[in-house]
Here is the input.
Amino acid sequence: MSASFYKNVVVLGTGGTIAGLISDPSREVGYVAAQVGVGVIAAQSSLEGILRPLNWGLLTEQLAQIDSKDMDRSVWHALSSRCLEHLNDPKIAAIVITHGTDTLSETAYFLSRLFGQAHKPVVITGAMRAHNDLSPDGPQNLRDAVDFAARLDQAGLGGVWVVFDDLVHDPMRVKKVSAQSLNAFHSFESDGLKDSIAPHRRVSHRSTPMYFEPMSEPMVWTSWRFDPAVDPQTWPRVELLTCHADMGNNLFLDHLIDLKIKQNHIDKFDSLSGLVVSGLGNGTWPKVLEDQLKRLLDLGVWVILSSQVPWGQGQAPKSSCLSHAHFSFTTLEPSKARIALMLHLIKTS
Ligand code: SIN
Here is the structure.
């Protein structure tokens, strides 16, 4: 791509620790997320050295200002709508998103399902230390994200990526693994291959193809063409249940069964459409849940079994629900399986 044609990188701010403040930086106390505007964060990152040689300008937009524990479908909708506009704008070369780390991997996966094959880069980053920390990691992470977006653009590549603490991650595999460390993200089932685009940087292995799960997956997630006109409150509701020892007849499942019965009688009572079970081991759930889960399946709720164990999956689970039309399993981690099922159901409903 020619560097002489004036283009911009746009940094969309959504909040998080990268925009957080601590009341006493010397003692690292009094932390609050999402306080500082994205324009200030970008200015702190001294991006000129990356942008000037490319003849790129810098635009910033405050898309949201939240602690990412509160990320929801409305913000995802606003973010996706804005990304779509920028992807279609010839004056925008790349999009960089600043995000809280707690749900960063979910937003990255959500965006990758929408824009994973985009011709422009969409790079997401954040920080583990607040904006006014004595030694913040946000400025370097944002510089790295812009730098990686620029390298992708120069190579004529796009897609959705996570850049954090000197690593580039595939949204499908990345997960937050530390609540303290600067090296807070890890890509599971990846080789840490070097990437020619960023030779100085370790790059997580991108499993192919982006939009679909490996062929062994029984569930082929449909790709979804994002339509900003569709109200996100109408997106199907998919809940998540975590398996553990000592489970009895599950009260949450009882509630979902009641809800679904009401929903089946009163049109549009609620939009419960799916449940992801965060299973054990290679994908199992306690025997005691069997009847309740079959009940939900019979009521028309999709049940997807995923495993909370990040490594070593690959065999089909031994579930008695295998033959049910609305049952499937996935090697995606549970929180991403929840998003995948929601998008799948938007597509098919
Ligand atoms: C958040 O996720 O918004 C707060 C935590 C963080 O960004 O590290």
Remarks:
- Residues 138-154 form the longest helix (17 residues).
